[in-house]
Each structure stands twice: as C-alpha cells, then as structure tokens.
Amino acid sequence: MTAYSLDDDGVVVIIGSGAGGGTLAHELARRGIDVVLLEAGKHLTAEDFVNDEWGGYEMLSWLDKRTSSGTWRVAKDHPLTPSWSCQVVGGTTTHWSACCYRFIADELRARTVYGEIPGTTLIDWPITLDELNPYYDLAEAKMGVTRTNGLPALPANNNFKVMHAGATALGLNVTTGRHAINTIPYDGRPATIQDGFTITGDKTGARWSTLNVELPKGLATGKLELRAQSRAVFIEHDAAGKASAVLYVDAEGVTHRQKARAVVLAGNCVESSRLLLHSKSARFPDGLANGYGHVGRHYLRHLIQTVWSTFDKPVHMHRGEIMGGMIDDFVRHDPARGYAGGFYIEMNSMGLPTTAAFMEPGWWGRDFASVIEQYANMAGIFMSGEDMPQADNRITLTDELDAYGVPVANIHYDDHPNDLKMRSHGYKVLTSIHKAAGAKRSVEAPAYPASHNLGSNRMAAKAEDGVLDGNCRAWEVPNLFIADGSNFATGGACNPTLTIVALAIRQADFMARQMAAGEL
Amino acid sequence: MSAITAHKDPKLPPPVALPEDASWVGALSLFDAQAAETLVAVVRTLYPHDGLPERIYRRTVFHFDAMASKAPAAAQVFAEFIDMADSALPLPFRELSEGYRVQVLKTLEASAPFRLVQRSAVRFLYDDVEVWQAFGYEGASVHLGGYVNRGFNDLDWLPDPPAGV
C-alpha cells in the first residue's frame, strides 16, 4: 500500500472520492502524480450494501445537520436535510442512477442565448462544447455508457413501456436513454440483472462508480493513497497565498496536517463551499478564494420533480433499472415556451418506502391511503430542468458548530419566476404523457432533497464573475482546484455526473501539463 | 393483485414479532400502554388502510418507541404530541370516532410534534414487509438474481416498444 508522509509537500491532496475527486485521483495517479485522497466516509464494499431504500439511505448519505431558508419547497419538507449527497468512499457515485447526457452547445452560452433575465446572474461558460467533447468521449468510454462505444441500450422495462406508450401517442422522441450501466459485460464488470437498487450502493457492480472503477485502478498505479474516514476541516495557505496544507480529523478524532503541492476540493457543492468559507485568514478574511464574494453563491439544484400515476393494471415499476427512459424534445431553449432553458424527461421508479415518503411529504388521510395502496399499478416520470442562477441563492455559515468545530451550513434558495414557469409546464407535460398511456390519476410530486448540487464555486471567464477559471482553478489561489459540480458556470438541464467526470479528466490533463512545465 | 412475494434484504433483521393481544405493549421500553395505544390510533388515522392488520400499526409504534428510547428530545416531542391529541376534545384521542380523530389531527397539522409523528409514521409503516406484500412491492432482489428473469418487462397491456428503442 502506498503511503505518503504528512510532511510530503509534493502530493496533490484531493478532498472527496466521488465522481470528480475519485476520477481525478485515478487520472492524476496514472499520469505518475502522487495523490493523497481524503474521504470523510467509510470504505464500504458491495458486501456491505443492502437492497433496501431506507437501509441504503442511512448507510450512504451525508446526514450531518444543515439548515435551509428561502421560498423553495425543500425548506418546508426537508428543512435539516435540504441537500442529498453521500458520505462514503465513492461519494455520490455509490448512489447515482447513472443517467449520462451531455450539455448542448447553447447551455454553455446561457447568458448569450437566453439574454438578460432580471434577477439572475447568468454567465457563459469559459469553455465551449468543442473543448469539452473530447473529454465527454473519454468519460463515456471509461464509464461504459450505453449507446456509446458500441454498447447496447438498456432494454425496455415495465415503467418504460408506460412512458413509451404515452410519449409515442403524443409524438415525442422517447428512448431508454444513455446510462453508465452495463447491458453486456464491460471493463471487467457484469451486465445488469435489473435488480432495481442502483441507488443503495449497487451490489453487482454493473453500474460505474468511482468505488468500483476509478479507485481500484488508481490504487493499482501505486501513486494513490486513499485515506477513508478523514474529514477535512481547514485549508491552509503559505505566505505567497498558495494552498499549502489540509487539516483533517481521522476516525479516532485526531487532527492531522497533510502538506500539499496542490489542493483539490471535491466534496460536493455544499461541503466544498463550506470548507472555503470556513478557511479564513488575514489574507482571505471572507474565506479562501473568496475575494470577489462568489464562494457559496449562485447555488443551483435543477428543477427536479416527478409525476406518479395510477393505472387500471399492474406496472411493477420497481422491477429493473430505475431511470431507463428519456425524452429530449424539451431540452433546447425555446422562447415560445415563455421561459428560458430546457429540461429532460426521464423515467423514474422508486420502491414503496420512498414513493410514500416523497410523493407529497405531509399528505395523510384516506385520499393518500387510496393512492399509495395502488403502488403495484403505479408508474413514475421525472424531469430535470435548468434553474436560474441567483446571487442570493447561496451556501453560508451559521453560528452553530458541528462536531468538528466547523460551522453548520445554511442553504438559501428562492424560486425564480423562470423556475416556476418551467415547473408548471413540466408538470403538464409529464401528466399528459401518463394520461395518454391511460392513467387514472396523476400526482405532482415536489422536489426531494437536492441531489444535483451545482454552481456554488463557479467558473467564469473573469475573476469578477466567479471563483474559478476555465480550468476549474481558483482565480486567487493558483494551486487550488475544484472538481465537483460546484464548478459549473450554469446548470444546464441534464444530470451532472457525466460532465463532472469529463471536467475532472480535463483537469488532470491541465494539472499534469502545469506540473511538467514547472508551474504547479 | 397479481401474486408477488415481498422480500427484505437478508442482511436486515426480520420484522419484530409482537404478541397479538393487549400484552404487546410489554415489548416497548419507554411508552406506557396509554401512550402506545394512542399512537396506534393516530397512525391508523393518518394512514387508514382498512385491510392491514393491527399488528402492522403496532410495529410502527414499536419503531417510534425505539427512536424515543435512543433520543430524549424525540421522547419529549412524542409525549407533547400525545398530550395535545388527548386534550383537544373532551374524550381521549383513542376513544374518538374517525371523523373526530381527523378533526383533531387537522388542528395539530402545523405543529412540530405532528410533523415528527407523521413523518415517522410514513418512514416505518411503509417500510414494513407485510405492507410491501399487501401493496405489491417485492423489495430486495439481488439475492434472488434481480428481476431480469422475474418480470422486469412483463407488462402486457400496452404494446411492446420496438427493440433497441
């Protein structure tokens, strides 16, 4: 096992082992770069995982307290768990449903294409789709995405048959979509057995995760040291203003200082912003890399919502991969719809425990009971749409300290009028698809705790507009990087993981080039 | 309802076996009989599935009791809730008809104690394998080979999509 000394200031320290951090760790290590990967959670294996919605949630989730405020429904329904990510080796890739869609060119030019929208802080990305596409290609190959690299699509399951019948009747373009789930054996991993439990850890390994792909490959290089149950609590910098060390607390509660050549934050949006805000110094009195005040701001979480419908006959939506369906008719920006941006429609299945919990939190009585009793005849359909960045939708520190002495984060989010217009249109479309397939009753379910957390340390073409440059490097700290979704300049509509992975591979190229040139 | 069999993951403990008579409250570590029976009546009023046997609602309250035993703050909130529910009308909550029970719960809906009880009821009631069986959720599948050969695409009342769609 590779082990680096705490005083080794030649290592890149990465905080977080999920889609961004876990991928970057492997990509740097295979380029011969020394990496220490700190992960707050435990190192679990497929043996530990359970096929159980609540069991998996409690085993994998980041359950430390957060608070919430603003007009978003989540603040009412889930006030202390407004955001949903994982605290485990592999991060949220142990939980994700593996949808792999690319940004479209217009989404990377959101400010230019959507125009001036009052109340928003829209910007264009500092990179173009042409720059990103080669990395999307690499990401799809490493992840084994269906319908790429000759890999077959997911087969239609029961829930998809409902979605397909409705969408086809309405003339929409519907397929099973693209997923980092094996339909045939690939990269030493088996084909899916349609178990339906990708989100509780994936016991078979048919679905790509950093736990089962990137980290084993990274460790095999001999250049990567993974330290699980190591909670980063502070980032230090030297007299020149460069990041120099990460303080972290191990499983025994002992605090260590790991010196660093470069530091990468990849702890998911909320934790990365929280850590920067908390890492104050005389030089950075408002938090590290926060001279322009953008750290924590422009927080995005996508317009996520589901429609659950009941039918006369059984669906058994829980059988099989849970999000194997996609409609892309509403992805492109179309001003005629009356709002900016677009959305993907995706199939959505949940088991009885979480369908009951998330269909309409707070709903009780005979009406609810009459709907949930029809679980076997229920189908689900979902959307992920672009929400508008706003300066005051942000992560801040509260006065309450957690067990490690770091302030608890608050997430504030007010819905923008554009968000509400898209949500309303989206519910109508989702419901119409199920009605066209024969639905008896459709229920508009609100967003659950945010799992697409984006934008709160965004990249921008100018330091005045964002925390990071186009290489996801802090404008103000030249050896500090971000490798999670908080680096997105705007949210786009699609599930973010494929883009996080593509950006991490691109970042590895950049960092390796900088190091070879003696500049990092 | 088609014939299905619900499975909990074999790594998880089986449902707790409670006595079928009034002595079930002896299995609780914190709630007394009055508190426990009141909560059973509350959970049944919140989620009235007439076909479900009493033991399932009792198991839900058994989970409340386990929660409250581990967290004094939660125990306090459950106690407050029971006081509120029992003092709303001239009869104790569990002696009220369903219509009055609903009326009482509606007056409490905005309170923090109601929220804890209602959310905990959803959390535990619909996680009960006997409820899964009743409502057609089969649950854990990897230990049975997934659903690939057990009906993941057996819906036959709509046209099959074209291959490779």
Automatic annotation (TrEMBL), chain A:
Glucose-methanol-choline oxidoreductase C-terminal domain segment(s): 389-504
Signal peptide boundaries: none
InterPro entries: FAD/NAD-bd_sf (IPR036188), GMC_OxRdtase_N (IPR000172), GMC_OxRtase_C (IPR007867)
Domain Glucose-methanol-choline oxidoreductase N-terminal: 87-280
A Pfam family assignment: GMC_oxred_C
Superkingdom per UniProt: Bacteria
Keywords: FAD, Flavoprotein, Oxidoreductase
Family designation: Belongs to the GMC oxidoreductase family.
Protein's name according to its UniProt entry: GMC family oxidoreductase
Native organism: Ancylobacter radicis
Taxonomic lineage: Bacteria, Pseudomonadati, Pseudomonadota, Alphaproteobacteria, Hyphomicrobiales
UniProtKB/TrEMBL annotation, chain B:
Top-level lineage group: Bacteria
Protein name: Gluconate 2-dehydrogenase subunit 3 family protein
Protein's organism: Ancylobacter radicis
